[in-house]
Design goal:
The chain is mainly alpha-helical. It has 2 domains: about 210 residues, Rhomboid-like (Rhomboid-like fold, Up-down Bundle); about 70 residues, no CATH class. The protein has 14 helices and 4 strands. The strands form 2 sheets. Strands 1-2 form a two-stranded antiparallel ribbon.
C-alpha cells in the first residue's frame, strides 16, 4: 500500500528524533487496535496493556523485564501522547543542535530508566504506596522527555525560546517550571508518574554536567546498542572517542549553529572522516558542524583525481 510505503520512507529518512516519535505513535495505535479487538470479544485491553507497562511489584517485574524498555514507549490516552510528543519534538530539536542522534537515543533510554528506578524505589519504600497495597503500573515517555528538557537547560541555560504571550524565555525557566509542576502535582494524583519525572530530570542534569566535564554517560549504552545491531547486520561497529560538543557563544535561539568554532585543517585523518560519515548516516548532512563540513570538503577534494 502506498500509504504504508510513505510511512516507511518517512521513518527511514527521518532523524532519530522523528523515529522515536514514530515508534511512540505506532505503539499507541497498535494498543488501541488490540483494545478494539478485545472490546468486540467482550473483554478489555487492560490485560494486554499491563504486559507492556512497568509494574511496581519487583517479582512481577522479574517475570516481565522487557517492561523496563516498553513502558517508555507506551501511551493510551490521546492527550497523554499528544503532549509528550509535542514536548519531545519541540525540545528535542533544540537538544539536537548541540548533540548527536546517539546522544538523543542514549539519553531517552537512560532518562526512562532513571524515572523507572525512582518510581520503583518509591513504590516499594514509601508509606503512600505500601499502605495501599496492590500493584501499580507506570507508562509513558514523560521521564525520558523531561531528561532531554533538563539536559538541554543545564547545558545551555540561557538559550532563548519564543513563547506565545510571553516573548523570549530562557530554557532554564522552562525546565524549572517543568520540575516544579511535577513536585506540586504530587497531591493531585499520578504520584508515581510525577516521581518518575523527577528521576528523568536527575538523569538529564547528570548527562549535561558530565558532558561539561568531558564525559559522556550515554557512550557505554550506545556502544552496546551498536554491538547488538552489528550482530544482526553482520557489520563491525565501533564507537568513536567522545569529543565534547561545542558550547554556544550566543543566547539567541538562531545563533548556536553559526557560533560553533570553525577551525579548518589542512589534513583529515581516516578516523575523522569515518566519524563524519557516520554522523551523516545517523542524522543527515545538515547535522554537521561548519568544521566537519569543511573537513569533508577537503577530504573529497583531496581524493578527487
Amino acid at each position: 500500500m502506498a500509504f504504508i510505503d510513505d510511512i516507511k520512507r518517512s521513518y527511514l529518512r527521518g532523524s532519530m528524533l522523528l523515529r522515536i516519535i514514530f515508534i511512540n505513535i505506532g505503539v499507541f495505535l497498535l494498543l488501541h487496535v488490540v483494545a478494539i479487538g478485545a472490546f468486540l470479544m467482550n473483554s478489555t485491553g487492560d490485560a494486554v496493556l499491563q504486559w507492556v507497562e512497568l509494574p511496581s511489584d519487583l517479582w512481577l517485574l522479574l517475570r516481565r523485564p522487557w517492561t523496563l524498555v516498553t513502558y517508555m514507549f507506551v501511551h493510551y490516552g490521546l492527550l497523554h501522547i499528544l503532549f509528550n510528543m509535542l514536548w519531545l519534538y519541540w525540545l528535542g530539536r533544540i537538544f539536537m543542535e548541540f548533540f548527536s542522534a546517539k546522544h538523543l537515543t542514549g539519553l531517552y533510554l537512560l532518562g526512562g530508566w532513571g524515572g523507572a528506578l525512582l518510581y520503583l524505589l518509591a513504590a516499594n519504600l514509601l508509606p503512600y504506596f505500601t499502605t495501599h497495597g496492590g500493584v501499580y503500573y507506570l507508562m509513558g515517555a514523560s521521564a525520558s522527555v523531561v531528561a532531554i528538557v533538563v539536559a538541554t537547560a543545564v547545558y545551555v541555560p540561557d538559550y532563548k525560546i519564543g513563547l506565545l504571550f510571553l516573548g523570549e524565555v530562557s530554557i532554564k525557566w522552562i525546565a524549572i517550571v517543568t520540575v516544579l509542576i511535577s513536585l506540586l502535582s504530587m497531591e493531585g494524583g499520578n504520584v508515581g508518574g510525577n516521581i518518575a519525572h523527577l528521576g528523568g530530570a536527575l538523569v538529564g542534569a547528570w548527562f549535561a554536567l558530565s558532558i561539561k566535564r568531558g564525559r559522556d554517560i550515554t557512550r557505554p549504552l550506545n556502544a552496546a546498542i551498536d554491538g547488538v545491531v552489528g550482530l544482526f547486520n553482520g557489520r563491525s561497529w565501533h564507537w568513536p572517542e567522545f569529543k565534547r560538543p561545542a558550547r554556544p557563544t550566543s543566547t539567541s535561539h538562531e545563533a548556536p549553529r553559526a557560533s560553533r568554532p570553525h577551525r579548518p585543517t589542512d589534513t583529515v585523518s581516516e578516523e575523522e572522516l569515518d566519524i563524519i560519515l557516520g554522523k551523516i548516516k545517523q542524522a543527515g548532512y545538515d547535522a554537521l558542524t561548519d568544521e566537519e563540513k569543511d573537513k569533508l570538503f577537503k577530504a573529497s577534494r583531496k581524493r578527487t583525481p
